[in-house]
Design a protein that fits this description.
This protein is α/β, with parallel strands linked by helices and 341 residues long. The chain is built from 12 helices and 10 strands. α3 packs parallel to α4 and α6 packs across α12.
């Protein structure tokens, strides 16, 4: 048997093994919901983000409170940090609960987003959506770099502040991880579906099985037995393939990177600014005493790492003149970069 043929068989076995692990996770997730988490589903009368006082709301996708608090100690960012409870453990739950059709206040919202789910669920509801994921998708990293969100956010604040409330939704620290060159195929599929204007109900049906696209990443499977025990629940197999140490480091680096641009926004923009998250993220956290670890943010899983998020309040240090100067500076840098090529 030739080497290439052996390699092909090895990849097939790895994919089959990974498929079984994913199937087990899916079954376990449903079991946990019906036996433990069903009673913990949020009260629909819970306060929404629209009830809070802010001019600019910065959302860091899948940002845990504990990791945010750790990094905050290392950076110079003035403000008040407190923990807040997310309205769910996924972006979809966040969008459905906070932006109800009969709430007239959603017409006051300008939404700058790197997350395609925002367009899928809020198109035609909020005043304006600025889909950075459509304009500046980075094929090399398979995501939207925080620089792109920063650039479009500045333009939005200049155009709409103070007439409207502005939400700026970064995709980081959510995977893909900028420090690891690894394609997340399911996220790319979501982007394509959103760009075609697919209905939310159709997307959710497909998204439930979309994670199986990641079987193509089976080649990075390094510790097969570790996937079996402790038992694991995840929304994307990318998390468990990386292992706990690499995963936490990559997640932390993503958060550190996006916070550099968040700080720049605070320095440029005026008004009351709040930094928060749509939900948290599991990095191999145990569910109580059970031998079960949570990775990512499976929907309807109401445990602390997935629903405890930061609520950081501060005031912008800039003004519209500063924003105009920064937009011009970024344009000149882009022109210079093109010339240098």
């Amino acid at each position: 048997m030739g080497f290439n043929k052996m390699l092909k068989y090895a990849k097939t076995i790895a994919k089959l093994y990974l498929f079984l692990i994913m199937l087990l996770s899916s079954i376990l997730q449903r079991f946990l919901f019906w036996t433990i988490f069903r009673r913990r589903i949020i009260n629909q009368n819970q306060e929404t983000i629209l009830d809070k006082d802010w001019d600019i709301l910065i959302i860091l996708d899948a940002c845990r409170y504990d990791v945010f608090a750790e990094i905050l100690k290392k950076i110079n960012l003035d403000g008040t940090l407190s923990p807040a409870l997310a309205t769910g453990s996924s972006t979809v739950e966040f969008l459905i609960h906070n932006f109800k059709k009969d709430d007239e206040r959603i017409q006051e919202i300008i939404y700058v987003t790197a997350n395609p789910f925002v367009n899928i669920f809020l198109e035609g509801k909020v005043r304006t959506i600025i889909p950075v994921w459509k304009y500046d998708w980075d094929n090399e990293t398979g995501t939207v770099h925080p620089y792109s969100v920063y650039k479009h956010a500045l333009k939005a604040v200049k155009k709409y502040y103070p007439s409207y409330r502005i939400i700026i939704h970064f995709i980081q620290p959510h995977y893909p991880f900028l420090s690891i060159k690894m394609k997340v195929l399911s996220l790319e599929k979501l982007r394509v579906m959103a760009s075609r204007g697919v209905r939310s109900s159709s997307v959710m049906k497909v998204f439930r099985i979309m994670g199986f696209l990641e079987l193509e990443n089976a080649y990075i499977l390094t510790h097969p037995l570790e996937l079996l025990w402790p038992l694991k629940v995840f929304d994307n197999v990318i998390y468990v393939l990386l292992g706990k140490t690499i995963l936490r480091n990559a997640y932390t680096k993503n958060l550190e990177t996006v916070l550099k641009y968040v700080k720049k926004l605070i320095d440029c923009c005026p008004g009351r600014i709040v930094i928060t998250a749509d939900h948290g993220d599991g990095l191999g956290d145990r569910i109580g005493l059970f031998p079960i670890e949570i990775y990512g943010h499976p929907p309807r899983m109401r445990i602390k790492p997935l629903i405890l998020v930061p609520w950081f309040e501060t005031f912008g240090k800039g003004n519209l003149r500063e924003i105009t100067k920064e937009i011009l500076r970024l344009k000149l840098l882009e022109i210079k970069s093109k010339v240098m090529r």
